[in-house]
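Working notes for the structural subgroup meeting. M.R. asked for a predicted model of this chain before we commit to crystallization trials. I am recording the input and output together here so anyone reviewing the notebook later can reproduce the run.

Input as submitted:
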Amino acid sequence: MALTVGCALIVSHASAQTDVGVESLSEALASAYENNPTLNAQRADLRATDEGVPQALSGYRPTITGSGQISATQGSSYYPYSLSLTVEQPLYAGGRTVNGVNIAETAVLAGREVLRNTEQTTLLDAAQAFMNLVEAQALVNLRRQNVDFLSQQGKAAQDRLNVGTGTKTDVAQANAAAASGQADLNTAVANLNTAVAVYEQVIGHHPRSLGAAKPIDNLLSKTLNAALADAMTLHPQILAAGYNIDIADYNVKVAEGALLPTLSVAGTLTHSEGSGSAAANGDSASAVARLSVPIYQGGEAASKVRQAKESLGERRIDLDQARDAAREAVISAWGSLDAARAQISAAQSEVSAENLALSGVIEEQKVGQQTLLDVLNSQQSLLNAQVTQVEAQHDRVIASYTLLAAIGKLDAETLGLNVPIYDPTQHYTQVRDKWGGLRTPDGR
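Returned structure, recorded in token form:
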């Protein structure tokens, strides 16, 4: 059921500018998906993580180094110099290169899940900002209607007092109720202004008139057990924790690689001039193979292996914690959704009953069977029921989005947002096999 009570936004604070057109929840979510700074910052962070892969792959590639020197001796007209070019190719690094690449590639996969979790958080925040604003405006409308009703009752009480059929007590009661209602309206307007500010921060622009919002039950798992099973396989925090275990395992292998030998070959070309010796002038070439076998490193390498193994154990515990957190979130969101559904049904019945009761009390007051105080009390009961209905409708929509996020499916593609879907693999593909170049793929 859509939130329909006062869902059209008419911003009431002084600085507001009302834009043309009605903005749907889907449009607000699309705007947040494109413009939210937190989400865009996480995308940039993932692009930086992508660069770890070509950095790790550089361990397979040769390095080329040029050097030169020139000397001068007092009283001598010779300026000997030499130029050298050295190419070194690593052949074996104790498995540290291959495992370093595995770490970098797995870090990219983990980073994508972190990005997906940030997307979920952003979209949920956007849905809450939208619904909070709709709710705030609906409550302002209800409070304003209440003030109008109480003002009319106060005027009627004063008119009856003027013609001698009313009492000062009725006037005082009506005025007190109107003052209390005005105070509640002022609070509601302040809450509306806060909701507008949050909306601008999360969505990225000033709100226009907001359309009705509906729950997304069609995207949810059909049963609680199905929701729990989906969360265990889909939630980004669980998947990221799994990748972090793989990273920690590769780190153990990298640490163990420090205990293994390394092998490389290097070739050098040298050109020398002006040394004063014909044998020393001209070009020369040399090649060398370097084998390094660690024998004892003061215990540092062994300690790093033990440290890496402890970190691996910690990452496994993190996975258990992520699963427990996801399970708790799904169960909590499922319960909140069920409660909101029940609350809406009860609130609708209560509003209908209170409307009938108020109409009856007003008619009975006209014939002297009820007092003004009875009318004021009945109006307050109706207002309370209407506020409860608005809050329940708000909670119903938010609960459905919260449950979808707890399952791990709150993303632009699942929601069908009309927005270009950010593809994290595009940048990765562009930079993975780069051997050089200082510009980013977008030209910076």
